[in-house]
Amino acid sequence: MALRFLGIDPNTGDQGSPTVWLDDETGDLVIQSYKADAATLAACAEVGSVPGHSTDVPEHETVVRLPGYMLQFFPKP
Length: 77
What we know:
The chain is of the alpha+beta class and 77 residues long. It has one helix and five strands; from the N terminus they run ββββαβ.
């Protein structure tokens, strides 16, 4: 895996904070951010996605909350 650092929360201290990397081999974004709280998970389940798709988050997935200002680090197509 060839990750390339894209950006970190500019207001970060020396503890964990939102960070974005790009996997140059797959084009995937790898994101470190805040765990979604129970209210956010419930809202995701209520809104859903496509008809008939489960609203449960499988064990191999998670939901994170990325602050909007971190979008500045996402590559433009």
